[in-house]
Each structure stands twice: as C-alpha cells, then as structure tokens.
Amino acid sequence: MPGSNALVVDGTISGLLLDVELTGVGRARQAEELAGALRTSVRSGTLRAGTRLPASRTLAGDLGVSRGVVVRAYELLVAEGYLLSRQGSGTTVATVAGAGDHPPVPSVRPA
Q1: What is the pLDDT of residue 18?
Q2: Region for 45 from its dihedrals, namely left if φ exceeds 0, alpha if ψ lies in -120 to 50, beta otherwise
Q3: Model-level pTM greater than 0.85?
Q4: Per-residue model confidence (pLDDT) at position 96
Q5: What is the mean pLDDT of each run of 10 residues along the chain (111 residues)?
Q6: How much is the pLDDT for 21?
C-alpha cells in the first residue's frame, strides 16, 4: 500500500510518509525505488539539509525489506550528492542546490 511506510527518525515518527511501494523484483530495483522516493523528498524540501536519516537496519525493518536495499539506496544518494554518510555519525541529508524549489530546467545550447 503506497504511503503506508513511515520514516522513523531518532526513534519517533517524523510525520514524513514515503510515497513508495517497493514492488520491484530484486533488491537492485527496490533500492532504486527507495532512492527515488528519498531523492524526491530532498528535492521537494520535505527532507531538509541536516536531517538525520534512520539507521539502515531500522529503515529496512520499517519498510519490510532487506538491509542491503537500504544500504544500496543510501549509497546511490551519497554518490549523487543528496546524502552525507560518515561511519559512526549516521546518514544525513546534504545541502542540495535548489532543494525545496522546482528542479532546474536544463539549458539548451544553440546548435
């Protein structure tokens, strides 16, 4: 059921509902779907810079997926610059240009 999985931050419900239904076959597809939902939340400003995300085990349990799915989604978003991750400090939302605004429209160069 979409939107039924609440994101847990510091052991409490943050009020953020991920609009994601992890229906993909295989962990790689589920990780891409989760990364997409988190990416959308960062871009829309729902997840603000500095917000600490749940530990991968916690979020995996909440979503009913393997920890590897969450780890892969976090890794994708770290590589894209949406998240920051430091061992022992957890994973937080990075400062992203345009977050909270509409995504920038790519410029078109004259031929």
Answers
A1: 59
A2: left
A3: no
A4: 81
A5: 45 48 74 90 88 90 89 96 91 79 47 49
A6: 61
In angstroms, the CA 2 to CA 9 distance is: 20
Task: Note the Cα 74 to chain centre separation in Å.
Answer: 7
- Comparing CA positions, the residue from 77, 79, 78, 59 lying closest to residue 68 is 59
Question: What is each CA distance from 108 to 37, 105, 111, in whole angstroms?
Answer: 28, 9, 9
Q: Report how far residue 40's alpha carbon sits from residue 23's, in angstroms, rounded to the nearest whole number.
A: 18
Question: Are the beta carbons of 95 and 49 closer than 8 angstroms?
Answer: yes
Give the list of residues 6+ apart from residue 79 with CB closer than 8 angstroms, or none. none
In angstroms, the Cα distances linking 54 to 44, 60, 110 are 19, 9, 45
Q: How many C-beta atoms surround the C-beta of residue 55 within 10 A?
A: 14
pLDDT of residue 12: 38
Instruction: Look up residue 51 and give its two tokens.
Output: 């917000």
